[in-house]
Amino acid sequence: MKITVTSVLVDDQDKALAFYTDVLGFRKKTDIPLGDHRWLTVVSPEAPDGVELVLEPDEHPAARPFKAALVEDGIPFTSFGVDDVQREYERLRGLRVHFTQEPTAMGPVTTAVFDDTCGNLIQIAAQ
Fold this sequence. Notes:
Oligomer: single chain
Radius of gyration: 15 Å
CATH architecture of the largest domain: Roll
Strand order of the largest sheet: 1-4-3-2
Number of domains: 2
Strand content: 35-45%
């Protein structure tokens, strides 16, 4: 068994696609219209056939309160691996990404947390 698809709940798929591709550097893989929304996925350019991230509309009644509670408590919705947290932090800050946690060493791992502009906090981490 392996993970092939995971998702992040977003408040606007077009805004999310722009942020996750133009800012974070992911690549669009799938874009299939489904009524008011789309099956919209992005992948890492380092693993184009790897795990897909679905930019999932947050329209379920439980989604927005759940996301708001995580943000209120400073809890990231998910985490992405990077080679160098400090370098990625500086690159993203240069693109005006808002961080809620600067790079912080936590034992063998360094993490930082940013706002994805779509209602989520996202962590980046490196060992």
